[in-house]
Automatic annotation (TrEMBL), chains A, B:
The family this protein is said to belong to: Belongs to the AB hydrolase superfamily. MetX family.
Source species, domain of life: Bacteria
Catalytic residues identified in the record: 157 (nucleophile), 322, 355
Pathway noted in the entry: Amino-acid biosynthesis; L-methionine biosynthesis via de novo pathway; O-succinyl-L-homoserine from L-homoserine: step 1/1
Residues annotated to bind substrate: 227, 356
GO MF annotations, alphabetized: homoserine O-acetyltransferase activity; homoserine O-succinyltransferase activity
GO cellular component terms given for this protein: cytoplasm
Enzyme Commission code: 2.3.1.46
Cited InterPro entries: AB_hydrolase_1, AB_hydrolase_fold, HAT_MetX-like
UniProt-recorded name of the protein: Homoserine O-succinyltransferase
Organism: Zooshikella ganghwensis
Originating gene: metXS
Domain AB hydrolase-1, chain residue ranges per copy: 51-359
Length: 381, 381
């Protein structure tokens, strides 16, 4: 709980739910007959509507990116380190829009939503959604706010893929794309980890083919395992070493399967907490959106060709110890942009924290991010 | 099935079961009142008994390291690439002993063995065994064959840890230790992956607290997941990329949770096959033996001090793309041995195959291994 709201916080925020009645045809071919987006905004849209910034969330993210929902919140939004008055995404200057994507489980239309055709939760019947679908709904959201062009679309990890997709799908509708700790597509190893997570969920006896809500159960163990696997890939080996090493929880080995090492305790706890707050069908959908993202595929694998029609300027940021989406993956995008003769800046941040670094307050990252955002603010103010 | 036995194979082999009646006090404090070891031998012990080599197996290994059990075997033993007439571990010159460790599930005393005190399988009551315990039983095995000193103790991965332990526990009983793709202890990340595997098994509804045999069930899904996670860590990112890339199994995306990518199909298959042939309680035991191995712990973390009394010569081999036990982990052992003024050779093999490389026929590895073994043979013949 914040005893008082910090001065550089956006403060108490209230999400809103925005309803879209127009049917949405998804990449998979299925149609959503209307949908809702849960959204938070921070700062004020200027009269020319030129200072709007879109925040795209990663696998387990949502609309609550900054500030607090109440004075009893233990933590602020997930990117509070970077969004607020005087922060890199400066809410004194910018109008920040953050949403929960469709297929999610934090208020936007997704598997836990009641399917109007059946009167029951969509559950496993919710269609497989893609990054392209998300960007299309985000474009509708821009229309809702009468924003013709985003000053910037910004995201980390899966969020960075959305920023990249924006640059290709709606080239004239963003001035800048900030793509952080991301990749142009998953590697076989990335897909393999996602598949383990999916199998863990789907093989849980309480999964019931995805109809656990109807059965008043929940695949808690499966989701916990999925998160444990994921969590290992978010931390670097070095970060785990400095955080836990081989420290024993009780000072001695148990010679049984209770927790011996601190790292086991930490992972179990992370899995436990996550499994209580996230919908399993949503988790499956998010991993598939990751697996399917491959904008170069339509261009015979030629990412340069895929990026040929982009008009925005790009900032790519990667972190040295990120082994989920290593710096090499960001450089693939940078190289393709350079080949396509686009304006791109690239920063590789020396940080021990692994993939999670993109969420954390790291000086060099913060300074570079801030400087780049100031340049955008000067252009759009 | 081999149509005919290759000329450089040890041929058809028959394992034997050796019974030890003397009680064994384990590191955990519990006592095994006798135990059996399942063993294969290849080649002939010379009259001076100086040409014996011990092969130590890794997590999922066993006694069947080379040759065939019958003409209908699809594959030879797990290290057939390196054991046989004219191969690096040359059975024309050496007497090779390969065993299944206690706690295993391939014929040595372990969780599937009937506990004489209850008349039921030990199951989860089988004590947690350590690398030290294994080495102690292997010393009893040496006594059984009247082998005072091994020409070499050789192992990869967890097998390498046993070779390292031999050098410290019985310094005068081996001339050489060959430690391949191994580490002086697990990292926090290694332990984390093991913990995911254990949780996958223990949370399977069919685990029944480890008493699945009594309940006529089997935690197949859990073991499958455990193996899938493990398998990802055995392959390098590069190996997965060149093997599968993002190839689609059916040429198109399914937009459901069937297999889309070849890598998913491969992993599911690997998990499936493994889960049919391995005991879940044994898997738990093997991962704990890995987690617990830390010979420097008794010396305040000083590996050099732990190795002070070793008398054998050492060969360490690592593989560039092995991220389970990276070359840095082998170098920790090399550095400690050099500090302790021991004779050590080290080879880092440039190989794309990741941790699995130690099992595969790789020219440079094979040549160096062969040359080193020839030196041993010249000494002991």
């Amino acid at each position: 709980m914040p005893e008082s709201i910090p001065a550089d916080s956006v403060g108490l925020v209230t999400p809103e739910t925005i309803t879209f009645d127009k049917p949405l045809t998804l990449v998979c071919g299925r149609v959503l007959h209307g949908y809702q987006l849960k959204v938070e905004t921070y700062g004020t849209l200027n009269t020319k509507k030129t200072n709007a910034v879109l925040i795209c969330h990663a696998l387990s993210g949502h609309h609550h990116a900054a500030g607090y929902h109440s004075m009893s919140d233990r933590k602020p939004g997930w990117w509070d380190n970077y969004i607020g008055p005087g922060k890199p995404i400066d809410t004194n200057e910018l109008f920040v829009v953050s949403l929960n994507n469709i297929g999610g489980c934090h208020g936007s239309t997704g598997p836990t939503t009641i399917n109007p055709e059946t009167g029951k939760p969509f559950g496993p019947d919710f269609p497989v959604v893609t990054v392209t679908d998300w960007v299309n709904t985000q474009a509708m959201l821009a229309d809702y706010f009468a924003i013709k062009q985003w000053a910037a679309v910004i995201g980390g990890s899966l969020g960075g893929m959305q920023a990249l997709q924006w640059s290709m799908a709606y080239p004239e509708r963003l001035r800048y794309a900030l793509i952080i700790a991301s990749a142009p597509k998953l590697s076989a190893q990335n897909i393999a980890f996602n598949e383990v997570a999916r199998q863990a969920i789907m093989k849980d006896e309480d999964f019931h083919g995805g109809r656990y809500l109807e059965n008043s159960t929940y695949p808690k163990s499966g989701l916990m395992l999925a998160r444990m696997v994921g969590h290992i890939t978010y931390l670097s080996d070095a970060a785990m070493r400095s955080k836990f090493g081989r420290d024993l929880r009780s000072g001695h080995l148990n010679f049984n399967y209770d927790v011996d090492f601190q790292v086991e305790s930490y992972l179990r706890y992370q899995g436990e907490v996550f499994s209580e707050g996230f919908d399993a069908n949503s988790y499956l959908l998010m991993t598939k959106a990751l697996d399917y993202f491959d904008p170069a595929a339509e261009f015979n694998g030629d990412l340069t060709a895929a990026l040929a029609d982009t008009q925005c300027k790009f900032l790519l940021i990667s972190f040295t110890t990120d082994w989920r989406f290593s710096p090499e993956r960001s450089k693939e995008i940078v190289d393709a942009l350079l080949n396509a003769k686009k304006e791109v800046s690239y920063l590789e941040v020396d940080a021990p924290e692994g993939h999670d670094a993109f969420l954390l307050p790291i000086n060099r990252y913060k300074q570079a991010f801030h400087a780049y955002m100031n340049r955008i603010i000067r252009e759009v103010a």
